[in-house]
Amino acid sequence: MNRPLSWFNITSLTLGFTFLYLPMVILIIYSFNASKLVTVWAGFSTKWYVRLLHDEQFLDAAWVTLKVAVCSSTLATILGTMAAYALVRMRRFPGRTLFSGMVYAPLVMPDVIIGLSLLLLFIAIGLDRGVFTIVLAHTTFAMCYVAIVVSSRLTSFDESLEEAALDLGCTPFDAFKSVTLPIIAPAVISGWLLSFTLSLDDLVIASFVTGPSSTTLPIKIFSSIRLGVNPEINALSTIMIGLVTVGVLVASLVSRNTIAKREREELEANLAPVTEPAMASVTEGVVRDEEIEDARASGARG
Amino acid sequence: MNLRRLLIVIVPYAWLVGLFLIPFLIILKISLSDTAIAIPPYTPTLDLSAGWAGIKEFFSELDLENYYFLWTDSLYWKSFVSSITIATISTFLTLLVGFPIAYAMARAPSAWRPTLMMLVILPFWTSFLIRVYSWMGILSTNGFLNNFLMWTGLIDSPFHILNTPTAVYIGIVYTYLPFMILPIYSTLEKMDISLLEAAEDLGCTSRSAFWLVTVPLARYGIIAGCFLVFIPVNGEFVIPSLLGGSRINMIGKVLWDEFFNNRDWPVASAVAIILLLILVVPIVLFQRVQQKQEEATV
C-alpha cells in the first residue's frame, strides 16, 4: 500500500505543515531580536530572556499557574477516574442519565459560560476568590476530560479479570489496585497530562474566577499583549513552546519504548509458553496476557 | 451496593452537581432577575428565612425582561448573527485547508504516519493564547507579512489585515486545524485503497472516484471535524479580541464586556443562556453522529 505520494499530496503536506509551524518559528526567531520594535531585525540578543527572568510579576504568575495546574490536575485525575469507573462499571444507579450528561456537557460548553456560572456560584456562597477557586474551576472541567479518556480504556478491558481476582480472594480494593489500576494506568497518566495542559492554557475561566491577588500566566500574557506585540512575551512563548516540545518528544519516545518492550515480551512468551513458571500468580499472568493483547493492538495500529 | 461503590459514585456526582449544575441554575435565575445598583448587582435574592411566602415572591419577580432587551437592542442579535456567520465560514475554510492535509497524511507511507500525527498534535499541546499571539506580529501593518511582501515588490503600501475579519478567519483556521485534520485522517486511514482501484476499473475517472468513493467514506470524519470547529468557535473570546479589533463583535466577547465592563450580570447571564440554546442543536446532532460512527465501526 506504500505507493509514492503524488505531487498534489506532497504540496498539501508541505504547505499545511508550513502553515502550522511558520508562525511559531517566526515567533521564536524574533524572541532573539535585539530591537524593541519586534518586527525589525536588529541583531541577535538574549536580553528579553534576561529581563523576563528578572520580572517578579511574571515569575509570580508562573508560580501561581504551576500550583493551580498541579493541584487541579491531580484532583481532576482522582475524581475523573472515579466518574469513569462509575459510568462504565455501574450500569444502574439513580440519576445515572443526569450524571453522564454532566460528565459530557463541560466538554462542549463554551469557556465563557463555565467561567461566568462558577463566578456567580462563588459570589453566591461568599467564597473568597483566588488560587483556591481557580483550582475548583479547573478541576471541574478537567475531570470530565479525564473521565472520557479513562472510560474508553475501561470499556476496552475485560471485566472478568476483576471478577477472577475477586474469586481468588482479593478484596475489591486489592483487585482494583493490582488488576484494574495497572491496566488503566496509561489512560490515567494521559488524563493527568491533559488536565495539566488544559489548566496551564486556560485564560477565560481563570479570568472569571480569580481574585485581585492571584494572576495566572495566561491572564498576565493576555493583559500585556492586548495592546500589541511585546518582545518579553516572545521570549516567554519560546520557553513554553520549548518545554512542550521536549515533553511531547520524551512522552512519545517512552511510549514507543514501552511498545517495543511489550513486543519483545510477547515474542518471548510465544517462544517459551511451557517454561513459564507455573508458580507465577494467576493475576499477574492474566494481566500480562492483557498487555500483550494491547501491544498487539497498538502494534497493528502503529 | 456496598459503601465503597456508593462512594465512587457519590463523590464525583456531588462535585458535578455543586460545581456544574447549581452554577448553571444560578445563571438561569440571574438571567430572569432585574439589574440593580447593589452588591450583588441584581434583585431579587432568594431569602429562605421568609418561608413559602418568600419563595413565592421570589418567583413572581422573575421575568423575561432581559431577553426582551436582547431582542430589542440590535447590538446583541447582530453579534449573535455575526458569531454564527463567522463560525460557519471559518468551519468551511478549515475543512478546505484541513481535508487535503488529512488526505495526504492518510496516503503517506505508513512509516511516516506516526511522525505526521505527532506534528499535527504538537501545536495542540502548545498554549492556545501563544498560537493566536504569534499571528499578531505577522499580520500587523508593519508586521512580518507586509514587510515580506513589500520586500519582494509585490505591494507598495502595507495591507491592513490585523483587526479585520480576515485576521479572525486566519486565526480560527490556524488554531482549530488539528480538530479538523484528526477525525478526517482517522476515517481516511481506515479506508481500503482497493475500493478506489475497483472504481477505476469500473470506469470511474480518478476525480469521480474521489467524489463517489473517498468523500462518502470519509463523511463521518468530515462531519465530526466540522462540529468540533463550529461549536467552540461560537463562544470564542480570545481570537476576536486579539485579532479582530473593536469592530468584530462575537458573542463570547459581548458576554465578557457585559460582565466585566458594564457590570450588568443579568444581561450577561441572558446572553450566556441564549448562546447555550443556539449550541444545543449542533451539540445534540454531533452526539448522534458520534453514536452512528461508533455503531458503524463495531
Automatic annotation (TrEMBL), chain A:
Belongs to the binding-protein-dependent transport system permease family. CysTW subfamily. One of its GO terms (cellular component) is plasma membrane. This is Inner membrane ABC transporter permease protein YdcV. Keywords: Cell membrane, Membrane, Transmembrane, Transmembrane helix, Transport. Its main location: membrane. PANTHER family: PUTRESCINE TRANSPORT SYSTEM PERMEASE PROTEIN POTI. The keyword Transmembrane applies. It is a multi-pass membrane protein. GO terms for biological process: transmembrane transport.
Automatic annotation (TrEMBL), chain B:
The chain crosses the membrane at residues 7-28, 80-104, 116-136, 167-188, 209-233, 265-286. GO terms for cellular component: plasma membrane. GO terms for biological process: transmembrane transport. Keywords: Cell membrane, Membrane, Transmembrane, Transmembrane helix, Transport. SUPFAM superfamilies: MetI-like (SSF161098). Residues 80-286 form the ABC transmembrane type-1 domain. Its main location: membrane. It is found in: Cell membrane. PANTHER family: INNER MEMBRANE ABC TRANSPORTER PERMEASE PROTEIN YDCU-RELATED-RELATED, PUTRESCINE TRANSPORT SYSTEM PERMEASE PROTEIN POTH. This is Putrescine transport system permease protein PotH. It comes from Methyloligella halotolerans.
